Amino acid sequence: MADLRKPTFILLLRKSGKRKGNKVEMFRASLWDEHWNDPGNPKGRWRLRVNGKWFPKGEMKFFTKTQVKELFFRELK
């Protein structure tokens, strides 16, 4: 069954000189009602899907904007 949720942001990342890139989709946490109503899950959280697979694999994790930026810059080194 296809997921009916639509990403808020889609980022296409490609390293210079390489043809193949990575597609990162960011979904608002509010799309998952059971986690959105949790008081420990404040606004501004995102769930990530990388190349069509949820990140991290096998875990439902939500990231803040700061955590997303840290993931990008840690991997771009």
Which properties best describe this structure?
five-stranded antiparallel β-sheet; 77 residues; 30% strand; alpha+beta; single chain; 2 helices
What is shown here, in short?
The chain has about 80 residues and is an alpha+beta fold. It has helices spanning about 35, 65-75, and strands at about 10-15, 20-30, 45-50, 55, 65. Strands 1, 2, 3, 4 and 5 form a 5-stranded antiparallel beta sheet that branches.
Q: Strand-and-helix sequence, N→C?
A: EEHEEEH
Assembly type: single chain
As a percent range, the share of strand residues is 25-35%
Low-confidence stretches: none
Total domain modules: 1
Helical proportion? Answer: 10-25%
Helix-and-strand structural type: alpha+beta
Tally of alpha and pi helices: 2
User: Mean of residue pLDDT?
Assistant: 82
Distance between the termini: 37 Å
**C-alpha geometry:** globular
Give the C-alpha Rg: 13 Å
What's the number of extended β-strand segments? 5
Summarize the biggest pleated sheet. 5 strands, antiparallel
